[in-house]
């Protein structure tokens, strides 16, 4: 089957800094794909360019074989997006947000209402459906954002850090919905730092570092017998040694305060000394 | 003492860090610095020149000035800054500081800055202008310092007491509306002048006679008095400062442990579907529904609409107070009101801001953007068309030209159409971010003030030029011309919308970036 997403030499710079330096991302249709990389690797920039929210300085991107910047009508009808940063229409209620989003895409109101009701129920948002989004918690925002992205039944779903700041219960709801979505042959691409989660959910992994794809393929190939976390650290070159030189004072409990750093002030209340044990319940 | 030094350093570091690597902010800071030096110099000079005025006038003026300083310190920090990093106790509560020291630190942080120093210098001007004899100077120095301390402590007490409210969403909404208060306040001198006080001296004496018994009035009086009465007054002010400081420390202690309960908000009503009964199902109806909700729920919209009506009312008031104006006046007034309303559409996507991506990922063609603009215009017209009719009726009645009501309404509607057309073009050519937290002194995100200025001037000039063809003839007596005004406006709106859709769709990512600046 064809690839759901394919980019060629995607490139973006902000002033002197190159954020994305020629990315060739490939995601086969029907896969649950994870885009992993350290902070600043260019994950968000890459996803923004593929979804048409950011104009690339070079290269091209295709979704389901349609060119993102030459054939936007076809591409935009096929993708659902949950960008980073929870940016939603804050002064609408959750239900109104879904209605607006669906009708903006030309779906009939009756259909949108039915779909919105089902999505709200599945996302466990039925109680909060008529509260303003501005008053939602992080987990609720991610869920309503995902509901909005799913509303028009896209074939490819782009999620930027969908599990960041989400409690385990909401995260479980999100993964259930996403699993159901991919099992029907649709594609999910999400970025994350949480390797365990990627390992558990994904069958396809792309690893980004410093604006490049450094590894990409089925999970088992990228992992190569290690845990994904170890494979990731090996790939992006994390600290290998015991990076603890110069932290001798950390954990020292000899009574005297070693060193003079501005945070530690002698004479503060005893209960708030840096040496106080965490978990010392009153 | 180390606390004082530490917090002074913290504030200076924050000031410096804010400027690093940002040319526009640096320029802004330099201008602010120049302005503060100017205010300090001129203020000190003016205050010291009071020495040349008769004694009672001088002391009355200082009493009034000191009172206004205090009121300024109470209001301006709330409106201008909300909370900044050094002033928000929640940012500091993890530091192992007893509340008393935290209070000393926050006090230091709030006097460290360009403007507090400038105000202190101006306050010292009163000493140069008012004090007489050794007693006056001996009492004057503590009086000035006490007045300054009173301003700071009161201002801190208010922000701290309200900090819980200011962090909650509803509190910030209310605060945003208080921008209106400044708009009204700015017109106060104008209104007072219109009342026609025959003798400013009498008014000053009357005000001073009352304000003299307020704490800042006492401080000012003590400088002029320089005797035992002055001493007693200073003791009272000092006690008051201590009490306020104690209250502040208490409020601080409480603010640190009070949680934010803003997410337990009430539900909103389900929509009545009125729009859907009139419009065919589709994106247009969706946009109109959303925009009308935003007019109701978004404080920035409420401020915009209220200001438009208020500014028009003020203009009407000042133009008509010297007796009824010419026949063209209702037309000019209504057209002006329409212009003020339409100016809000000069940056149509600004308030959507960071959420505009939701539209951007749905819009696959120019047509979609044009529909979005049409929906916004329609929602605007739903409110503006009746409002303009009311303006026209009131304008016609108050100026004594009821015959001009219909022409005025027609011209107003025409001007509105023009404004929406021009506004949709400026919305896509010079888009800028409207900050979430409204600030009475700037309508754009940091660094975009210039863009906001260009946008509103552009919209205003565009509307003014394009409306001349029907406003001028009406003013000169060819009233029948205005029959064509609504059609002219409608044409301008349609053309402007199509042009804006063409330009805007081509630069949708840039548009998105421009309205999504951090604010």
Automatic annotation (TrEMBL), chain A:
It is found in: Cell membrane. Keywords: Antibiotic resistance, ATP-binding, Nucleotide-binding, Transport. Its main location: membrane. GO terms for biological process: response to antibiotic. It is a peripheral membrane protein. SUPFAM superfamilies: P-loop containing nucleoside triphosphate hydrolases. InterPro entries: AAA+_ATPase (IPR003593), ABC_transporter-like_ATP-bd (IPR003439), ABC_transporter_ATP-binding (IPR050763), P-loop_NTPase (IPR027417). GO terms for molecular function: ATP binding; ATP hydrolysis activity. This is ATP-binding cassette domain-containing protein. It comes from Nonomuraea phyllanthi. The lineage of its organism: Bacteria, Bacillati, Actinomycetota, Actinomycetes, Streptosporangiales.
TrEMBL record, chain B:
The lineage of its organism: Bacteria, Bacillati, Actinomycetota, Actinomycetes, Streptosporangiales. It comes from the Bacteria. This is Uncharacterized protein.
